[in-house]
Amino acid sequence: MNNVLRLAIVDPDDSKRDLMKNMLLGMEMIWLEAESSRYEFFGDVVAQTHPEIGLVAIDGDPDKALDLVSRLSETSPDCSVLVTSSSSDGNLILRAMRAGAKEFLTEPVRIEDLLSALGRIGERRLGQGDAKQRGCQVIAVTGSIGGVGCTSLAVNLGCLLAQEEENSVALVDLDLCLGDADVFLDTIPDYTLVDVAQNVSRLDFTLLKRSLTKHASGLYLLPRPVQLEDIGLITAEDLQRVIGLLKATFTHLVLDLSKSYSAIDLIALEMANHILLVTQLDLPCLRNVVRLMMSFGEMEGIVDKIKIVINRVGLESGQITIKKAEETIGKEVFWQLPNDYRTMIEVRNNGVPLCEQFPKAAITQSIATLVEALNSDGKIEAPAIVAKRSGISKLFQMWPSKGG
Ligand SMILES: Nc1ncnc2c1ncn2[C@@H]1O[C@H](COP(=O)(O)OP(=O)(O)OP(=O)(O)O)[C@@H](O)[C@H]1O
Ligand SMILES: [Mg+2]
Q1: How far is the CA of 302 from the centre of ligand 2 (A)?
Q2: How far is Cα of residue 38 from the mean position of the Cα atoms in its chain?
Q3: Mutate to test the pocket of ligand 1, among 341, 346, 358 (most ligand atoms within 8 A of CB)
């Protein structure tokens, strides 16, 4: 419970209070500390339990409730008050804010509005040096060409993150047509992104978690739709809400994007904290990285989040060098993943992640260090991978030139 906001709620209407509690209970960022049905006792409840947030539903008796809000801001200034009401009357909102409310939400409260309000309160507290809320790290994995290794990275990164006890991690397969994250995890899911997207306004967090498939590694998977014709049912707006919900309930989200750079992919890029752009060291891949970086440059807030990941380093002697790749792209390479086709194909075919089947393999260690590097604010740098010489270049090594 290190990164949660503790909340106490008061609402004389039992059924409305239960509804709100259900919404709050599934949120891992929220710990429901106390509840009360009486405005007159709530000041004492807050004084005794010291919640960071006091949620006051004022419709039971607006005058009494707003008196309580004023008292709370005097007696418990560390408690941020969030007011809810079915009225959106400007005067009432003004009174609530003047009484000391930090946020005002109109009932019925939409889950994403509640999340935003809680997020704002959390951020303000962080600004005050309260480091309790850690938030959710969203990692989008995208690629410069088909088959470059995005799903391999997304799945194994997710499983490695999920191994840490303090993490709760979900992987969303956004390759809506042909995604195969379920194959990598050998799962047959009951629900897909379509079910969740279509019910997003009705979902509470317990239901959301139940709709995801939990892999033995601890990783939750939200797979792509089963039927191709269902893809049209998911809008970019739906996805935005789904990601919003997932962000509130998981510590890490890994998004495996398609290579079509559709509106859905773009939402994922916007909502991500880190974008891992996977490429290989050949000309078509690098040319696409350059093109992508130019387009990303036109979009707000994307370029700074991009981290170039070179996959399959050491694949063959004809590969372009890292230095040349960096010059071409005009950006430093963030990470290098070694080539290991046999291991990678085996884990995919067996539907078992690297950390289970090959925990000691160089590729597993490399992804594990990448995970650390993402959290290290640039303190951990990618170790260079020295390509094993093979084929013709190996022969040249065995027979040094006469002059040498
Ligand atoms: N580091 C690696 N070394 C060797 N082979 C790899 C490596 N990473 C991925 N592969 C292999 O490359 C192939 C494509 O990988 P993957 O499916 O992860 O790519 P992708 O970018 O998700 O593809 P798609 O565009 O179809 O979604 C797979 O056969 C996988 O085993
Ligand atoms: Mg893929």
Answers
A1: 21
A2: 38
A3: 341
